[in-house]
């Protein structure tokens, strides 16, 4: 990585300088302050200019607000937009304060983290904000907060307004239509005990907005491993297979057909399996959730979008 | 022998200082390994610290100290357990004592509301209680499985440890199933032996307790020596064997608990270090206690620096390194032991 790196640093700096002109924060902008999702007050003397963005949702929000050029360090999982992948990356599970400090960020954005390491980052005097929204409304709030921290509050308001309108449009289209029951498979590595998304997860919330019904909604945890028998007994009208793009190999439907007992499901026999929506669109609490919602609504109610 | 012990202690202490200096000077700057020999100059003794100085003061330094305390605690715990049980394979990790401590800490992690309410000291206290419970169970099981000539049988102890470890692992798995993936990942890394961030006040709390435990053991050294004759032999030379045994077991589980609270399940330190030390200066506790503490501190301090830097900015769990060194040593000892036992019967 070394040589590639050294040539990239000045390049990135150039890009940053170039974009700074069209970038939201006016020079000499005033101090900013927000309260993050954990109730911590985060105050900066001026809008953030060097950001360590250590979760994919925050990275996507920053880029969507036009502040992507200020990201100096990302986590390995932050893969979108594609140009984010050119940034140096760190391990989100074991953030090294030493490493982060080396990039002299004026703001560190996290969504989860080892409590002791978060404390360590604060001990170093770094401004740390944690955004781990649970609902779409909280996502809007976080976009607004991140916008404020970057001096891009206006852009944030524009973005959330747009997102709200798109969500509203979907809700209106599917209103009054029958709500098919859906089994969500987030990870089928063990076909006998696939992982699903329980009630309160973002997939669950998007399903509800898209005019569907999550058969695992009664399980009140975002990630649950369920017995395949229960799924067969629940007889879902449709099946949403996530993560196909990651695994490669056969499409979702082929995979389900080859499993013992699953061909008895009406949804599998009739091919009512959704496997083309990228998992990130339904799990990362950023602006792309709405892309996922639209795709999901189209898949559940194609007739409503004709 | 006595002078030799001092020479070794002084030598290892010097190495320990050198390794501490190196750990402070070595860091990764934007993904590259860098050595800053003038790191002390970055720390100012008046007014505001630079970001880099704060990295040194609040991240690297406490971590170096923590790794030393952990190493000393686990090594001394192993030394005492081996002496008490007259069993060279006694190690807090192998005997399930660390497992008990780990389980208690995972329990605390599973009830985060409790931690917030009770403060940080709950973790070391829980670790100590878990270690204590496991130690009593293991000694109890091993005792009921047969004592021959005042010596707890090697197999009895190890098997009791296997049972306790298996039990603790099962309960931990049960608890971990309910953790969300992110917390699961973090807890798993911790269980593999990971030294992270420790506040100075927390570190002072643990260090003071560890020092007190060490002093207690040092004052009991001559009584501990009597255990070389076995429990009955110790009684014969006028040592209240049961009382000393119980107290020393209590203190070594305290040390184990402290080590686990700071560094997770770090295996084999309590096995390798005491063996090396006894090989160097014999088995008199008056000589081995200090040297074991210093050598344990050195081993974990070096292992942690390697773990921190070898994949920087990623970190390797320190437990991986100590296990890589420890497993062959254990295998060797086991061979010697079992061959000896075979000849005896």
Detail the topology: elements first, then pairings:
The complex is a heterodimer of chains A (306) and B (345).
Chain A: H1 2-20, E1 32-35, E2 41-44, E3 51-53, H2 56-64, E4 71-75, E5 89-90, H3 97-101, E6 107-110, H4 115-123, E7 128-130, H5 136-149, H6 153-174, E8 181-185, E9 195-196, H7 202-209, E10 213-214, E11 224-225, H8 228-234, E12 238-241, H9 244-247, H10 252-257, H11 266-269, E13 273-274, H12 279-283, H13 289-300
Parallel strand pairs in A: 3-4, 3-6, 4-5, 6-7, 8-10, 8-12, 12-13
Antiparallel strand pairs in A: 1-2, 9-11
Chain B: H1 2-25, E1 26-29, E2 32-35, H2 39-42, H3 51-85, H4 97-110, H5 112-118, H6 122-144, E3 147-148, E4 151-152, H7 154-177, H8 181-191, H9 200-219, H10 221-226, H11 230-236, H12 241-263, H13 269-281, H14 285-309, H15 318-344
Antiparallel strand pairs in B: 1-2, 3-4
Largest sheet of chain A: 5 strands, parallel
| Tally of individual helices of chain B | 15
Strand content of chain B: under 5%
Percent range of helical residues of chain B: over 70%
Radius of gyration of chain A: 21 Å
Mean pLDDT of chain A, rounded to whole units? 87
Q: How are strands sequenced across the largest beta sheet of chain B?
A: 1-2
Overall pLDDT of chain B, averaged? Answer: 84
Computed CA radius of gyration of chain B, to the nearest angstrom:
20 Å
Under the CATH scheme, the architecture of chain B is Orthogonal Bundle
Oligomer: heterodimer
Shape of chain A: globular
């Amino acid at each position: 990585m070394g040589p590639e790196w050294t040539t990239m640093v000045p390049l990135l700096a150039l890009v940053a300088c170039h974009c700074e002109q069209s970038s939201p924060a006016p020079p000499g902008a005033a101090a900013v302050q927000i309260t993050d999702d954990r109730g911590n007050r985060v105050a900066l003397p001026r809008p953030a200019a060097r950001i360590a963005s250590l979760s994919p949702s925050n990275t996507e929000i920053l880029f969507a607000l036009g502040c992507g050029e200020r990201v100096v360090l990302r986590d390995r999982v932050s893969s979108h937009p594609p140009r984010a992948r050119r940034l140096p990356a760190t391990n989100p599970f074991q953030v090294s304060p030493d490493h982060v400090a080396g990039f002299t960020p004026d703001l560190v954005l996290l969504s989860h983290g080892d409590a002791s390491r978060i404390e360590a980052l604060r001990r170093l005097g770094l401004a740390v904000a944690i955004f781990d929204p649970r609902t779409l409304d909280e996502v809007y709030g976080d976009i607004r907060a991140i916008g404020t921290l970057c001096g891009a509050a206006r852009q944030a308001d524009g973005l959330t307004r747009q997102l709200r309108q798109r969500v509203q449009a979907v809700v209106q289209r599917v209103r009054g239509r029958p709500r098919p029951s859906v089994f969500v498979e987030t990870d089928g590595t063990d076909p006998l005990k696939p992982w699903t998304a329980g009630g309160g997860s973002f997939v669950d919330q998007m399903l509800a907005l898209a005019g569907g019904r999550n058969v695992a909604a009664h399980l009140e945890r975002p990630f649950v491993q369920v017995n395949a028998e229960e799924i067969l007994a629940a007889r879902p009208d449709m099946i949403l297979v996530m993560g196909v793009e990651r695994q490669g190999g056969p499409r979702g439907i082929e995979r389900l057909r080859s499993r013992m007992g699953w061909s008895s499901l009406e949804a599998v026999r009739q091919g009512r399996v959704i496997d083309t929506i990228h998992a990130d669109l339904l799990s990362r609490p950023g602006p792309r959730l709405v892309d996922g919602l639209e795709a999901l609504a189209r898949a559940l109610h194609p007739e409503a979008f004709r | 022998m006595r002078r030799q012990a001092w020479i070794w202690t002084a030598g290892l202490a010097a190495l320990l200082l050198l390794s501490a200096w190196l750990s402070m000077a070595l860091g990764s700057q934007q993904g590259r390994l860098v050595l800053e020999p003038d790191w002390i100059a970055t720390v100012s003794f008046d007014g505001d610290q630079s970001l880099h100085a704060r990295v040194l003061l609040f991240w690297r330094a406490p971590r170096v100290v923590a790794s030393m305390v952990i190493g000393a605690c686990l090594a001394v715990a192993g030394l005492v357990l081996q002496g008490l049980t007259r069993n060279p394979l006694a190690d807090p990790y192998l005997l399930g004592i660390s497992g008990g401590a780990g389980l208690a800490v995972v329990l605390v992690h599973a009830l985060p509301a409790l931690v917030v309410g009770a403060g940080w000291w709950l973790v070391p206290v829980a670790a100590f209680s878990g270690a204590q419970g496991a130690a009593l169970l293991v000694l109890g099981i091993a005792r009921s499985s047969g004592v021959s000539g005042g010596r707890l049988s090697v197999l009895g102890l190890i098997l009791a440890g296997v049972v306790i470890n298996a039990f603790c692992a099962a309960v931990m798995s049960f608890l971990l199933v309910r953790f969300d993936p992110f917390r699961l990942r973090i807890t798993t890394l911790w269980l593999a032996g990971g030294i992270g961030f420790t506040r100075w006040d927390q570190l002072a709390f643990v260090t003071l307790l560890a020092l007190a435990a060490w002093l207690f053991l040092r004052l009991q050294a001559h009584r501990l020596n009597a255990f070389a004759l076995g429990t009955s032999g110790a009684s014969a030379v006028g040592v209240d064997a049961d009382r000393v045994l119980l107290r020393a077991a209590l203190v070594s589980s305290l040390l184990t608990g402290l080590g686990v609270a700071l560094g997770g399940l770090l295996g084999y330190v309590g096995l390798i270090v005491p063996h090396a030390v006894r090989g160097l200066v014999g088995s008199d506790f008056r000589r081995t206690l200090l040297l074991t503490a210093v050598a344990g501190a050195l081993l974990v301090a070096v292992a942690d620096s390697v773990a921190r830097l070898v994949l920087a900015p990623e970190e390797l769990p320190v437990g991986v390194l100590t296990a890589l060194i420890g497993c062959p040593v254990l295998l060797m000892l086991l061979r010697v032991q079992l061959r000896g036992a075979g000849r005896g019967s």
